[in-house]
């Protein structure tokens, strides 16, 4: 075998690794597989709704909004509701950098303000639900967690949301209000991540929303605590200025705020606005 | 980092790309290769340039001064290096087994070993939790027998990074081994060397460039690892908050800080990789 032939043979696998590297690196981006719908330019006052409504919604709304999305599609055949659930801040950041969305439902007024400050909403946001914190513990509460103060036990592995996301800000607020200092093992990137750590039994307790405890359906046990009244979170919703489907966006928001929508939200554990 | 006055036009900074020196006509670069090649270069470099152009150069010094950034950077460098070391110690023998021994189902094993390459990192993190977590298949015993819990510890960060980065090394080394002539080893064994001695004294030096290339790839991948780390090791400043985690969370409320942190990470990794290149990547 000649030397050059051997070198080519040696380079081939390296090239393969390069391709594989590219492939793997591309796996690191967050998915946003929604495409804006073609606007229905019929221009009539009460058009028949069609096309896709893209809703960016806080992670804690996942269950209730998925149900509402199905209801919406049944009520308006020919429409499709595409959801992008995530941390409110991440969603707000992607909206202000031009992500194609029609509706934004945030888990806190502060994160909604990121979008309104940039004048990216079509009209003023309105509160459609409220949420309260609860302690999530392992099923059966083996560690006998009964109050917020119990979370200071150094034997206990506690996870909190990071202060940059609404559930973390709320947790900080109730802890400060109670004058309690908790050292968690981790500050999670969103509320579902904090809940998952308890669901997987990797952490003993976490501060999450009532709705999250409910959605975990028995995999965690909720413990209410009085300080949670100090940090009840308002959930604002708003149509977005760059919406390609403004009519459908307005209709979806109307559904969320209707009696039907409120019923679904209440079932998920949200408080009335 | 030098202070740059932001020009109105996008002028590449120090780290900007050099104009490709196209030797026209004499060697003849075929157009169907030149155009997509330049397009690829632009595609890879323009986003980085955008980072440089939009970088908050003014606040960079104050960002650098914060202890959290140093903590995260230090942790990133240490854990990526440790993960690469783990990958080398375990991955090179695995690559040798795959390249030099015959056993049933070898092709399947090779495919499975490279799975973490295509697995979404977050899923990798969950898989690690289910295996090595406090309640995991293996983790349960680790906890019960040795009192070792990996999640939420710096060791957990290293495990997560090694899990994602090791396949790069294995593929790279295995490819090099396949390309390397096995007759040198065979000659050594016929001259009385044991198989391990032959591996240590003949094969290893022979494939060193391939190992180096694989290690660099693995290190870079470990340095940028986000999904598996935050899922398996969580996020606690100074213990498990690596640079990518810090960047992600900074992005939530201070995009400028996030860009600054990214630049720091970029600069450090470029410096390290360039340093290594001069050291022992020559001729690879």
Automatic annotation (TrEMBL), chain A:
Name of the encoding gene: modA
GO molecular function: metal ion binding; molybdate ion binding
Family designation: Belongs to the bacterial solute-binding protein ModA family.
Pfam family, one: SBP_bac_11
Cross-referenced PROSITE patterns: PROKAR_LIPOPROTEIN
Family matches, as InterPro entries: ModA (IPR005950), ModA/WtpA (IPR050682)
GO BP: molybdate ion transport
UniProt entry keywords in alphabetical sequence: Metal-binding, Molybdenum, Signal
Name of the featured protein: Molybdate ABC transporter substrate-binding protein
Coiled coil regions, renumbered to chain: none
Signal peptide positions on this chain: 1-29
Organism expressing this protein natively: Streptomyces seoulensis
Organismal lineage: Bacteria, Bacillati, Actinomycetota, Actinomycetes, Kitasatosporales
UniProt-annotated binding residues for molybdate: 60, 88, 191, 209
Organism domain of life: Bacteria
From TrEMBL, chain B:
Gene of this entry: modB
InterPro entries: MetI-like, MetI-like_sf, ModB_ABC, NifC_ABC_porter
Membrane topology type: Multi-pass membrane protein
Cellular location(s): Cell membrane
Superkingdom in the source lineage: Bacteria
Segments forming a coiled coil: none
A GO cellular component annotation in the UniProt record: plasma membrane
Protein name per its UniProtKB record: Molybdenum transport system permease
């Amino acid at each position: 075998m000649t030397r050059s032939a051997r070198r080519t043979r040696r380079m081939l696998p390296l090239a393969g690794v390069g391709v594989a590297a590219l492939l793997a690196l591309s796996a690191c981006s967050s998915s946003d597989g929604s495409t804006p719908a073609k606007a229905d330019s019929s221009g009539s006052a009460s058009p028949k709704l069609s096309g896709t409504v893209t809703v960016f919604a806080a992670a804690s709304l996942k269950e209730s909004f998925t149900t509402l999305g199905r209801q919406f599609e049944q009520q308006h055949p020919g429409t499709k509701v595409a959801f992008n659930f995530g941390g409110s801040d991440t969603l707000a950041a992607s909206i202000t950098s031009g992500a194609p969305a029609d509706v934004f439902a945030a888990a806190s007024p502060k994160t909604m303000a990121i979008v309104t400050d940039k004048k990216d909403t079509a009209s003023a946001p309105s509160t459609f639900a409220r949420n309260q914190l609860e302690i999530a513990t392992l099923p059966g509460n083996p560690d006998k967690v009964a109050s917020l103060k119990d979370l200071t036990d150094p034997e206990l592995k506690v996870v909190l949301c990071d202060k940059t996301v609404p559930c973390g800000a709320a947790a900080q607020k109730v802890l400060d209000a109670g004058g309690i200092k908790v050292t968690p093992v981790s500050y999670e990137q969103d509320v579902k991540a904090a809940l998952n750590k308890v669901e997987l039994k990797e952490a003993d307790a976490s501060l999450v929303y009532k709705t999250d405890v409910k959605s975990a359906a028995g995999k965690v046990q909720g413990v209410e605590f009085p300080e949670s009244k100090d940090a009840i979170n308002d959930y604002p919703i708003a149509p977005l200025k760059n919406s390609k489907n403004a009519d459908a966006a307005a209709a979806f928001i109307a559904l969320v705020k209707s009696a039907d929508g409120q019923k679904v939200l209440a079932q998920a554990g949200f408080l009335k606005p | 980092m030098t202070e740059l006055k932001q020009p109105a036009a996008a002028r590449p900074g120090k780290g900007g790309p050099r104009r490709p020196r196209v030797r026209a006509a004499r060697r003849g670069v075929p157009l169907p290769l030149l155009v997509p090649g330049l397009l690829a270069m632009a595609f890879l470099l323009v986003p980085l340039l955008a980072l440089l152009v939009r970088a908050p150069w003014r606040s960079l010094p104050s960002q650098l001064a914060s202890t959290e950034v140093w903590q995260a950077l230090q942790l990133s460098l240490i854990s990526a290096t440790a993960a690469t070391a783990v990958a080398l110690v375990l991955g090179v023998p695995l690559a040798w087994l795959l390249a030099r021994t015959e056993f049933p189902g070898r092709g399947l094993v090779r495919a499975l070993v490279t799975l973490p390459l295509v697995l979404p990192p977050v899923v990798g993190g969950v898989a690690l939790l289910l295996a090595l977590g406090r309640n995991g298949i293996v983790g349960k015993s680790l906890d019960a027998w040795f009192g070792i819990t990996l999640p939420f510890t710096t060791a957990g960060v290293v495990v997560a990074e090694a899990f994602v980065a090791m396949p790069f090394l294995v593929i790279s080394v295995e490819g090099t081994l396949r390309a390397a002539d096995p007759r040198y080893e065979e000659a050594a064994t016929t001259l009385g060397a044991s198989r391990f001695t032959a591996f240590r004294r003949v094969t290893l030096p022979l494939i060193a460039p391939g190992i180096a290339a694989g290690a660099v790839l693995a290190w870079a991948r470990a340095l940028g690892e986000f999904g598996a780390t935050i899922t398996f090791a969580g996020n606690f400043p100074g213990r498990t908050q690596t640079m990518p985690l810090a960047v992600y969370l900074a992005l939530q409320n201070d995009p400028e800080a996030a860009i600054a942190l990214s630049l720091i990470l970029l600069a450090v990794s470029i410096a390290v990789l360039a340093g290594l290149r001069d050291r022992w990547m020559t001729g690879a």
